[in-house]
Amino acid sequence: MTDGSHRYLEPTQSAGRRFVQRGLEGPVVMLNLLRFREVADYSAHPELAPATPITGAEAFERYVRHTQPFLHESGGEVLFLGDGGAFLIGPEDERWDLVMLIRQSSVTSFLAFASNEAYLAGLGHRTAALEDSRLLPLSERG
User: Fold this and answer.
1) Residue 5: predicted pLDDT
2) Residue 124: its pLDDT value, please?
3) Residue 13 lies in a domain
4) What is the pTM of this model?
5) By the 8 A CB rule, do 79 and 103 touch?
6) pLDDT per position as a tens digit, 65-93
7) Best CA proximity match to 1, nearest among 89, 95, 142
8) How far apart are CA 34 and CA 41, in angstroms?
């Protein structure tokens, strides 16, 4: 595990600016590494909270179900969704529960997806689900 002092759940303004300034051309693949909370924490989004407590993994499933229509509408797709675990090469005490590769047709389509008000209405499920995450935008070499 990480020491808990640095958890990453949302992009910072400076990270968002650097992402746009990279000037990526063509499709972008987003590598997501996700670690779930034992019990989902809906304190920041009580309007989305279920009647009884659920796991972080269950809250993330709610996020995925909510998100898929908006992802497809924006031209995006899930390329890979799979169980994570401990690194073969990397910190021995670090694990990721789920790994996703999401393909977007362009940076513009990703930004349109990420700023869609209807999509954002369900983002609290992701926040409730995650203990920590990483998001790495990838572009194919030409």
Assistant:
1) 62
2) 98
3) no
4) 0.91
5) yes
6) 999 999 999 999 999 999 999 999 999 99
7) 95
8) 15
Smallest Cα–Cα separation from 37: which of 130, 133, 104, 137? 130
End-to-end CA distance of the chain: 36
Q: Which residues of 32-48 are buried (b: 16+ CB within 10 A; e: fewer)?
A: bbbbbbeebbbeebeeb
Residue 36: give its domain's CATH number. Answer: 3.30.70.100
Q: Could you tell me how many helices (H) and strands (E) the chain has, helices first?
A: 5, 4
Residue 139, judged by CB atoms within 10 A of its CB (0-12, 13-18, 19+), counts as middle
Provide the b/e sequence for 94-128 (b: ≥16 CB within 10 Å).
eebbbbbebbbeebebbebbeeeeebeebbbbbbb
Residue 15 lies in a domain: no
- Give me the number of domains the chain comprises: 1
